[in-house]
Amino acid sequence: VVLVTPSYAKTPPSESRFEQVLSTAHALYKDVQAGANADYIPALAKVDSNLFGIAIVTAQGKVYSKGDVDTEFSIQSISKVFTLSLAMEQQGADAIQEKIGVNATGLPFNSVTAIELNQARAVNPLVNAGAMATVSLLDGDTDKQKWGSIAHWYNDFANRKLTVLDDIYKSESATNGHNRAIAELLKSYDRFYADVDLALDVYTRQCSVGVTTKDLAMMASVLANAGVHPITGKKLMEPENVSRVLAVMTTAGLYETSGDWAYQVGLPAKSGVGGGIIAVVPGKFAIAVFSPKLDKAGNSVRAQLAIDYIAEKTDVRIF
Ligand code: DON
């Protein structure tokens, strides 16, 4: 997608302006029709393409929102950020770097070539290979242990009990042969750390978790607040692990267009093929935007435009 930043005067980063900025972003991009729903997971093709929600949660826990922010959709690859966070807290930052990797692939999210080009590594935890390897690395070797810890962790970030969207889970389970091949390939290189069927199924379920745009902004606000949940006050992550997760989001959060994103928008972010994108302004706030139509790399077109606009108007680009 070509991001065109409007050349309006910048808004001071005052919270009182958030509502206005969100409303304007919504009005500016609600009629953009570029892109298409993901259809390699059949259930995603059926989601209403016109849905568009924008939410901000500040590091103090204030919520601002506009549009379809209470509609549930599948979290998809945005889940990778939170499973990475859990694995890093459990296993330590070195284990992530050594056993999975933290370099950019520069290639699509489900690339097999990236594995072959990187000495049989999964490459990084935000592409499919690395995300499945991250699930394999989590404590426990049963579904109950791995899924239980993920579900509990996501709920802590969202501050509510999330559920799996069964239609998405079934549709994705029936069509995830490519991911299975990736996991088997990693296993053959001793870069996969649990049973393939088990980790693949847990990964597929985590991608099918239903979230609203507000949930995603709430979850990401923990990363904006150095690992402490702004509402519950619970310390979920070490601040140095938050920094590392944000580093991987910067290099790989939008896959092969992560460089363009950092260059243009200048914020750590993560997309999902369900149409969501989260972006984090460290110490200040988190943004989540949802709209299903994706560009060729698998990133929501309207979400990219809205986040770019919000970053510009609130003057929070960190690059
Ligand atoms: O494994 C998959 O292909 C999906 N469950 C997630 C991919 C995804 O969200 C890529 N994101 N932009």
TrEMBL record:
Reactions this protein catalyses: L-glutamine + H2O = L-glutamate + NH4(+)
Alphabetized InterPro entries for the sequence: Beta-lactam/transpept-like, Glutaminase
Domain of life: Bacteria
One Gene Ontology molecular-function label: glutaminase activity
Keywords from the UniProt entry: Acetylation, Hydrolase, Signal
One Pfam family hit: Glutaminase
Family: Belongs to the glutaminase family.
Protein name from the UniProt record: Glutaminase
Organism from which the protein derives: Pseudoalteromonas prydzensis
